[in-house]
Q: What sequence folds into this?
């Protein structure tokens, strides 16, 4: 894997430098890459609220405050500027004809067949598994720089494989559902096998009212019925019915979110979704699945078109356990959890083995670390805590014994109250192992810094220049990771310092009191090439992270940094952006036309509302309930 | 591994045993293939084939990758440079024979006859800082990791890749094929979201890592059940109905429906295509079980086995004319190295005297002998007209970087096959201006970087030798691929070297 060259590469260089006591470092390309992350003019350490926008570029004088330099902490509760400026008259340009994501597609297939018969759904799932295995996985998109973070919901490419395989699936499901006369009778009714042609049309209509209506997520109009009926010549032979199934499961209304909307009197560019369209949007957002019967009934009755009825359904859907899988996906992508490297690739290496001691990383440990973060998010939602609680949650959700040992807590059973961290320096996301582990014997403060800056604060980091000079930097023995990073990237006159000393490194240094497996530490040990401990040095976590342009306060560690992030309000603004991107599958428009939806999420988070409420609020926004047709 | 053939054919077992992947220690038997294949396989009028295997990281020292400079015996002025050429000659290296430390293999497999069908080319450059990428191999520079400002800048200027340009050119596929391009791996090949109209967005064309899936794409009936009249025409009508309805849709909604319908048309076309090798049956084993073995990541033997299975499918498809394009991303390490290759090997391979260069040398040597040469040998074992399929093929090995990872000067190019007589073969060609050095970012490396010619010119040459008219791909200033010379590079690339990029490359073309 090619991790960001301004972060991972340096970290690995440091493994050999710091842990193997090379007296002189010849700058490797890893280090070079860090140098490339350079002092562009924009890397001033002054942060804006809108991605791509620097405070210096903005006119509002109150935004342009510079650090006082006297060390006196300002009132950090005063936001730099309103993060979003809602203009209800603006209509954002929306993604056209979104397709179902991979998970949504699979769930939709299952949903359509399961309504007939659970056992039949299981059989169908088995039958199509070889095809589904080949269905393209959604790639991350809608990240601010095209390579860090992003959401799979933003993958709207339609590959030939999508078309081929959805066709294969449709045909295969048709075969399964018409396997023999008994099966046909079960799926289509006795009218399909009674040899009486007089009721064939009724038989087909019955199928269209049931299976097709669920699959296409709305009742079929007369012309739709006519199309499907005519497409199979009005016959109910097994092959015809199999074709009918295939036609439904390849229909645009099955594979895409087809929305036509309805005109709004005073909004010529905006069209409200009809109840069926809205039901689909709701259920795919919260469940990654089509509407259930209750939601369909709300659409059918018109209740969903009322504010009260809509709110009731939002609450019901959110409270359903199926929401968890959607939220898991959001937090997994929002927090870059899949970038956690393999933890076991260096087992057997002398230095790594010496570093890890009696902790043997496995694939299961990596999964456990990711689940620990997701469980924290779930717990925050369930117990009604605000979003900011993620940053200071002191519960250990380690069900894996190795992770529990790393946390020095008992293993959690997965039910009931999770045990609390006992180490004072451990609290919240930035001190969880998934954020700290690297798969090497060394920490990667640059990666940590990049994640906080880009993932949690939504600040862009400028592209490194091409022409950074490669100057060998003599490295002395017994330098901590931080010291090496500082020497390589923060030295006066190097092109690195502009970004690294302000935007990146200080954020990553704050958690250097944890090692590369997430274990708390106060010193960093050094090893020779054989794994022998040859020394140690105290770690330093104090830094000035410049969370916002007007805040020059230093922090002592990750706990303090987390507090500062919350107090800055910028964390919440970025969260609003990220949740928006997840929901709508795209970046927010630079013209501010999405600011109403963003401000609604942001305001809710900022007000300390429960995370569950913040996550629901997006559905209440007019943007969620309507679309434009430019 | 078992000797069980992967392709089983009920009545011509011997032929198929030759296509048996792991059994390729017993080489393809040209006489058997010729005798049987010539009757079965009816190549289309355009018989040219194109396959490119792309490896990651790069960073192979010139002295390891290329023959010695003394092999260059001819020279001529060319595009502001001095182009040099020499005959490729095998020399023994222990039990191996080769033309360079990396381009070597067991003596009984890497023969003079094969060497006469290959070229090794140095001095083809990307004259800006693209660094890590997967797109440059085939001409989409926008697919890069954004390691520098240049790379970030070009990310907004994607191009279709040359394999897709060939695939959708009526001059290349005059008749129907089941699969336009066989693609192994991802992020290599790109084309318009509406390929027929060349409109929409330029997006990735997905590949697979499952050789059985690859086989199915090319040969399989899409469905395994009893044959039924495809319903795809009615599926298409269903989309057309919505597309042309009066229901409210945005312009882009309709564009998306158009793209989907284009894909359905492609599906319909494929369903009606016939494969002339009618007696081939599905392989009994595929690459996935190999890839999923616990130690695959550090087992070069397993890695080679997986890629040999892809090679089998490609060779068979080329033999049958079922597809004549293949792109394979060969991104395993081909090494027993257990750590992070990119960080620990590729990024340190420039360091003199270090183990990293030796490790990368061994890995690429393994790739050449066990995978790239394997495919060349398989294609050369199949008779086609008065020669072999390899003679009709342009088989390419390209690398992500030049002699230092992150740098794209002198990206090694190794080819087999004459592209139906369009290429002169048996040459070592060097376009580098060795009297000029580009300042190295790599302190202590024993190898400098020398500027050469543009990779865009190679891409254009590849398209042209495959018979694709310039009107279908040529950039306004000539050549193929985003024309760009980075600010830091301008002093090293005279106008002559970066203009006229559709011109035939010296010593390469007939």
A:
């Amino acid at each position: 894997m090619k991790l960001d060259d301004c972060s991972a590469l340096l970290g690995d260089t440091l493994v050999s430098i710091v842990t193997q006591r090379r007296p002189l470092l010849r700058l490797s390309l890893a280090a070079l890459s860090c140098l490339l992350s350079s002092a562009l003019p924009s890397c001033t350490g002054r942060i804006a609220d809108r991605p791509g926008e620097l405070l210096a570029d903005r006119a509002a004088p109150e935004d342009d405050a510079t650090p006082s330099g006297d060390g006196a902490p300002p009132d950090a509760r005063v936001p730099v500027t309103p993060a979003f400026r809602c203009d209800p008259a603006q209509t954002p340009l929306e993604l056209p004809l979104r397709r179902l994501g991979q998970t949504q597609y699979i769930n939709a297939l299952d949903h359509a067949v399961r309504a007939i018969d659970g056992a039949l759904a299981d059989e169908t799932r088995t039958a199509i598994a070889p095809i589904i295995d080949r269905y393209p996985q959604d790639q991350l998109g809608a990240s601010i720089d095209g390579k860090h973070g992003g959401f799979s919901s933003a993958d709207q490419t339609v590959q030939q494989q999508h078309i081929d395989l959805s066709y294969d699936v449709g045909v295969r499901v048709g075969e399964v559902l018409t396997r023999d006369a008994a099966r046909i009778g079960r799926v289509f009714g006795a009218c399909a096998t009674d040899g009486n042609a007089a009721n064939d049309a009724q038989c087909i209509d019955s199928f269209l009212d049931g299976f097709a209506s669920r699959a296409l997520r709305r009742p079929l109009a007369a012309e739709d019925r006519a199309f499907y009926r005519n497409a199979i010549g009005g016959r109910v032979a097994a092959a015809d019915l199999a074709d009918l199934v295939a036609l439904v499961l390849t229909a645009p209304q099955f594979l895409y979110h087809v929305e036509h909307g309805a005109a709004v009197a005073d909004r010529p560019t905006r069209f409200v979704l009809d109840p069926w369209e809205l039901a689909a949007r709701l259920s795919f957002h919260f469940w990654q699945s089509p509407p259930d019967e209750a939601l369909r009934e709300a659409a059918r009755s018109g209740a969903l078109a009322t504010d009260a009825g809509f709110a009731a359904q939002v609450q019901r859907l959110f409270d359903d356990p199926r929401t968890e899988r959607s939220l898991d996906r959001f937090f997994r992508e929002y927090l870059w959890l899949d970038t956690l490297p393999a933890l076991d690739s260096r087992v057997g290496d002398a230095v790594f083995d010496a570093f890890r001691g009696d902790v043997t990383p496995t694939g299961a440990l990596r999964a456990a670390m990711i689940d620990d973060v997701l469980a924290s998010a779930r717990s925050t939602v369930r117990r009604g805590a605000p979003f900011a609680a993620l940053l200071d949650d002191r519960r250990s959700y380690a069900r894996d014994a190795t992770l529990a040992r790393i946390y020095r807590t008992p293993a959690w059973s997965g039910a009931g109250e999770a045990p609390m961290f006992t180490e004072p320096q451990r609290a919240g996301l930035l001190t969880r192992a998934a954020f700290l582990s690297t798969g090497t014997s060394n920490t990667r403060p640059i990666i940590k810094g990049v994640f906080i800056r880009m993932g949690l604060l939504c600040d862009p980091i400028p592209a490194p220049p091409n022409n950074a000079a490669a100057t060998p930097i003599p490295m002395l023995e017994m330098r901590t990771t931080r010291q090496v990073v500082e020497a390589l990237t923060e030295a006066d006159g190097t092109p690195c310092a502009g970004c690294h000393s302000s935007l990146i490194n200080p954020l990553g240094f704050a958690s250097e009191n944890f090692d590369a497996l997430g274990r708390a530490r106060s010193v960093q040990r050094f090893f020779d090439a054989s794994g022998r401990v040859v020394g140690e040095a105290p770690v330093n976590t104090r830094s000035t992270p410049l969370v916002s342009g007007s805040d020059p306060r230093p922090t002592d560690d990750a706990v303090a940094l987390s507090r500062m992030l919350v107090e800055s309000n910028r964390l919440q603004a970025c969260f609003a952006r990220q949740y928006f991107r997840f929901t709508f599958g795209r970046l927010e428009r630079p013209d501010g036309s999405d600011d109403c939806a963003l401000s609604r999420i942001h305001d809710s988070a900022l007000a300390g509302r429960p995370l569950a409420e913040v996550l629901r609020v997006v559905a209440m926004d007019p943007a969620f309930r309507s679309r434009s047709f430019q | 591994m078992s000797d069980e053939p992967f392709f089983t054919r009920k009545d011509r077992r011997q032929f198929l045993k030759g296509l048996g992947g792991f059994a390729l220690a017993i080489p393809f038997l040209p006489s058997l293939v010729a005798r049987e294949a010539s009757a079965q396989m009816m190549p289309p009028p355009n018989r040219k084939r194109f396959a490119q295997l792309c490896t990651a990281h790069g960073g192979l020292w010139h002295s390891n990758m290329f023959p010695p400079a003394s092999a260059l015996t001819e020279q001529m002025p060319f595009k502001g440079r001095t182009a040099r050429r020499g005959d490729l000659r095998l020399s023994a290296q222990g039990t191996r024979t080769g033309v360079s430390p990396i381009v070597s293999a067991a003596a009984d497999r890497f023969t003079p006859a094969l060497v006469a069908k290959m070229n090794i080319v140095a001095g083809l450059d990307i004259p800006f800082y693209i660094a890590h990428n997967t797109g440059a191999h085939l001409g989409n520079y926008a697919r890069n990791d954004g390691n520098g400002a240049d790379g970030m800048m070009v990310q907004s200027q994607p191009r279709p890749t040359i394999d897709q340009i060939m695939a959708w050119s009526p001059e290349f596929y005059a008749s129907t094929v089941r699969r336009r391009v066989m693609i192994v791996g991802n992020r290599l090949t790109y084309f318009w979201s509406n390929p027929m109209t060349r409109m929409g967005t330029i997006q990735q064309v997905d590949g697979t890592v499952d050789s059985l899936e690859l086989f199915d794409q090319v040969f399989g009936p899409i469905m395994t059940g009893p044959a039924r009249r495809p319903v795809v025409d009615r599926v298409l009508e269903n989309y057309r109905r919505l597309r042309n309805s009066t229901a409210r849709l945005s312009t882009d909604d309709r564009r998306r429906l158009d793209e989907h319908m284009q894909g359905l048309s492609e599906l319909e076309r494929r369903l009606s295509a016939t494969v002339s090798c009618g007696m081939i049956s599905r392989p009994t084993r595929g690459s996935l079980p190999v890839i999923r073995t616990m130690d695959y990541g550090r087992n070069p033997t397993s890695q080679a086995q997986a890629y040999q299975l892809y090679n089998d499918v490609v060779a068979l498809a080329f033999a049958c004319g079922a597809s004549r394009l293949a792109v394979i991303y060969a991104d395993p390490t081909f090494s027993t190295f257990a750590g992070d290759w990119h960080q620990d090997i590729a990024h340190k391979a420039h360091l003199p005297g270090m183990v990293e260069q030796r490790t990368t040398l061994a890995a690429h040597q393994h790739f050449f002998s066990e995978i790239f040469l394997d495919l060349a040998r398989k294609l050369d074992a199949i008779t086609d007209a008065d020669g072999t399929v390899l003679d009709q093929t342009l088989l390419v090995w390209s690398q992500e970087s030049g002699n230092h990872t992150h740098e794209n000067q002198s990206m090694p190019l190794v080819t087999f096959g004459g592209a139906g007589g369009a290429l002169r073969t048996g040459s070592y060609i060097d376009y580098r201006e060795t009297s000029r050095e580009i300042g190295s970012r790599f302190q202590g490396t024993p190898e400098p970087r020398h500027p050469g010619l543009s990779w865009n010119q190679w891409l254009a040459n590849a398209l042209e030798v495959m018979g694709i008219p310039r009107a279908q791909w040529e950039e306004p200033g000539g050549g193929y691929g985003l024309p760009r010379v980075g600010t830091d590079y301008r002093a090293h690339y005279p106008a002559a070297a970066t203009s006229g990029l559709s011109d035939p490359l010296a010593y390469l073309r007939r």
About this structure: Confidence is low (pLDDT under 50) at residues 1-43 of chain B. The radius of gyration of chain B is 23 Å. Chain B has one domain: 13-219+275-400+412-498.
